[in-house]
Amino acid sequence: MKKYCLIGALALLSLQASAQEQIRFGVEATYPPFESKLPSGQLVGFDIDLGNALCSQLKAHCVWVENSFDGMIPALKAKKFDGIISSMSITPERLKQIAFSDKLFNTPAYLVVKKGSKLAATADGLKGKHVGVQQGSIFETYAKKFWAPKGVTVTTYQSSDLAYADLVAGRVDGVVDDAVVLQESFLKKAKGQGYVLAKPEVYDEAIFGHGTGIGMRKEDVALRQKLNQAIATIHKNGTYDKLAKKYFNFNVYGK
Fold first, then answer.
1. With DSSP H G I counted as helix, E B as strand and the rest as coil, what are the percentages for the chain, rounded to 5?
2. ∠ CA(166), CA(167), CA(169), 5° rounding?
3. pLDDT digits (tens, 9 = 90+) for 156-173
4. Which residue from 45, 78, 148, 234 could staple onto 239, CB 3.0 to 4.6 Å apart?
5. Does domain 109-208 have CATH number 3.40.50.300?
6. Integer Cα distance of 70 and 77 in angstroms
7. pLDDT tens digit string along 46-85?
8. Cut 0.90: pTM above it
């Protein structure tokens, strides 16, 4: 009987330890090279590698929970997961609702247009035109704030791929997205031949912030501190640079 009691106690402790060591991250896997899904269903990308590296550093088990990007913050608040690692920019507007870890990376945003269109990524340059953006993104916020009031029609899409499809079909004149994603998911592929990035860079400090981070509930201070320590560690021990070089030939961490 003592033996069975001991086994039961050890099993209970093991379950408790497993629960404590599990970190659930929300992700929308439609944004290569940061997060996407192989035909096998395996999640891959820079964000995925970073999340797994942070869990490894904390000796925790990563669980990835797929969720639509525009519903990511409500799902976090509803405790569907513990953090968001999905190329989510740290912005003043989002900071009103949730907290963020230290920066993970910072990449520029651009408008992609048909080569020879001579469109500029400005309100005047796009007046009377149609621009596509991902729903719930900072690109949507920017376009609706600065361009829509000046006569630019802003169309939102559930994913960037849907926006690119409408660009190729001629239903929109341009799409605003992360420059790296534009290169990897569109410009380097057959469907993106004949398209270019329009100048200037799309940026507003109040909207775009200073990079992406892990979104967390404000009350989860201990988890935020642990993840920030883990972020600092993977920078110091070279893990971050090793993972970054797997995907990029430039400084993705940014300014």
1. 40, 20, 35
2. 60
3. 999 999 999 999 999 999
4. 234
5. no
6. 13
7. 999 999 999 999 999 999 999 999 999 999 999 999 999 9
8. no
